[in-house]
Amino acid sequence: MRKALYVLAIIILICSCKERQEPVIFTKYDESAALEKQQEHRNRRMKFKLFQSKFLDMNEVFKPFDEDLAYFSEEDYNTIKPMVIEQDIPTIQTHIKNGHLSYEKLTLFYLYRIRKFESDSTKSLNAIIALNPDVVNQAKAKDKEAKDVDVNSLYGMPILLKDNINTDNMITTAGAVALKDNQTKNDAFIVTKLKENGALILGKVNLSEWAYFFCSGCPLGYSAIGGQTLNPYGRAEFETGGSSSGSGVATAANYAVAAVGTETSGSITSPSSKNSLVGLKPTIGVFSRTGIVPISSTLDTPGPMTKSVIDNAIFMNAMRGYDETDAASVNIKDDYFSDGFDVKFNDVRLGVLKSLLNDSIYKMNVELLKTEGATIVELDPENMSYEGFITLLNIDMKHDLPSYLSNQAGDMITQKGVATVIEFNRKDSIVRAPYGQQLFEGIVKDETTLEQLEAVKAKLNYGGKTYLIGLKDHKLDAILSINNYHSGVAAVAKYPTLTVPMGYEESGEPISLTFVGKPFSERRLLEIGYAFEQATKVRKLPKNYE
Predict the structure, then answer these.
(1) Concatenated DSSP letters for 202-230?
(2) In the prediction, which pLDDT does 3 show?
(3) Of 244, 267, 276, 481, which residue is the catalytic one?
(4) Known catalytic residue at 481
(5) What does the alpha-carbon distance between residue 406 and residue 402 come to, in Å, rounded to a whole number?
(6) Distance CA 306, CA 100 (A)
(7) Is residue 162 annotated as a catalytic residue, yes or no?
(8) Active site residue: 162, 274, 281, 465, which one?
(9) For helices 360-372 and 522-536, what crossing angle results, to 10°?
(10) Where are the domains of the chain?
(11) Number of Cα atoms under 13 Å in the Cβ half of residue 306
(12) How far is the C-alpha of 62 from the C-alpha of 70, rounded, in Å?
């Protein structure tokens, strides 16, 4: 009798076990016809020379997860999908708190989804460069350790990082072959903060190589390591925005809860706008830059790229922290969301740029804000001069990149500056720099002294502040722009920007409203952005990535 019951139990156990799924195989495809068609694109930057990476083998990237994904089925994926896709962090955390989901299942869901689309040659976005091989085990640990988790926290949330941000167990390439072996010993400061707040680092995403300060007029979202990133709203039709292209594309396609980007001038705002996301470029000093491959210590900053304003605010709380090794770091004590948002538009004063009112979507949203009760002040500032802007980037990078390579890069990296990277690329330029490296060459040729540079910085900073003087003169909460149109102005003035989806062009291309605020006014920008988001609710999932 006991033997029969034992046999029956074994049979039940076998029957209840999930059928093992065969691993998905990534295969290279013939892209010649697609490239030939791409040469007809009206945008010169979209005339691609290649789509696929010549360096990545996604089978190797996914190998650590073969066993875990073998027992995660399409049925599991579809069951979880409504709880995750396009949902904000508090909603996902609530599902986990109620026992409908776990951090492990959430992580497997994203891994499965990435593999599902990136292995399909008709839908792949070339967004992923690396995945954290330990992330599933880390998610399991979060499930065991979870106690009274705040639903407004990043605890257990899988997030992606732009691949110019150091991590201790993944290579940091900045998209460049010269850094393909850059295994750093330490996490970037902001990664340490994210982990301290419970976030799971899911992996690294593609970017415009060297944060788009490398080649001139080349495609946004291209890197030698990651290949050509593609926009899910119009694959090979719309630009991805740059340089945080992979951060924008991956978040828009729901490859993770959200992603972290970096900006010097427009590199968060641009891809957030092009991918219908909420992107925040904070005031310099709010977040540390230690452990991030630099362009400019004057203008660089990381920032969150999310599908909702709430998620953005949650990221702000998790990433902040004073870093004594970053000269610009400020000890921020603001709480960006924990007490929620409660803003009424009749308390809000906004500046509208007359030059943009010929854009019908911008004008429509300005009218909506008036209807909601906002005070609108029309502004017509004179265009500022960007003379010296490239010089600022040239000389900063000439000094800042060697500092990173010497102090924060891995031991395997032999390149110690811009000139040595140029020479390295020339040895195989077709593979390493197919679009050229004109901007790097310009850095080497620029002989501006550090004393002259200070004068350039001061002039640009004055020009930016003068253009945005309406913030002070009219006691405005923000000035309204479109996409990254005024990112350069905000960058040199060192003012924060928040971009929020405001609609779609007739072609289907996303367009966003960008709020430019006063220094350290991020909390106020988020409040206003949240009110605007709730009044419009225009963001939608890319139709081929549902």
Answers:
(1) EEEE--SHHHH-SSSSPPTTEETTTEE--
(2) 52
(3) 267
(4) no
(5) 6
(6) 23
(7) yes
(8) 162
(9) 100
(10) 39-545
(11) 26
(12) 12
